[in-house]
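Consider a typical record:
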Amino acid sequence: MQIQNIVVPIDFSRRGDRALEQADLLAKEEGAKLTVLHTIHLRLMERLLVGDRRNQLLEDTKRQLEAHTKGCCKSDAESLVEMGNPADVIMDTARLRQADLVVIGDHGEFHLKDAVLGTTARQVIEHAHLPILVVKTPESKPYKRIFLATDFSDASYRAI
């Protein structure tokens, strides 16, 4: 299976940049389209930001994301800014873009229960219907080997 569309959500953190760098390498190697996604999750403040203030925040963030993407990516990537619950937005974007892969950093906001894997990454993995690559360390070259554990379930079969 060739990878044609990759979605990489970033939060402007170092870990998000690692995911972006790996997604960029994969996109370049596979000749895939790359969508760089940033989600604004304002919780209660979202209700207070309406009209022009909301549009201004979206425009400012889009400019910041485009500049950040150009600085990090060697491939031609599309920048996209959305508002909402990050895990939901990631999966909706992946579905709408017909993504073959989501590349995500291992942590975002920190909670004790998410010490190994960040909240958003965990939620995306739990609800995903497509492959998810969780990037923990920086990579400077494409992957050469893939390790896959299986329990012979349908989910494992789909992963293979």
Remarks:
- Confidence is low (pLDDT under 50) at residues 109-116.
- The chain has six helices and five strands.
- The first strand starts at residue 5 and ends at 9.
- The first helix runs from residue 14 to 30.
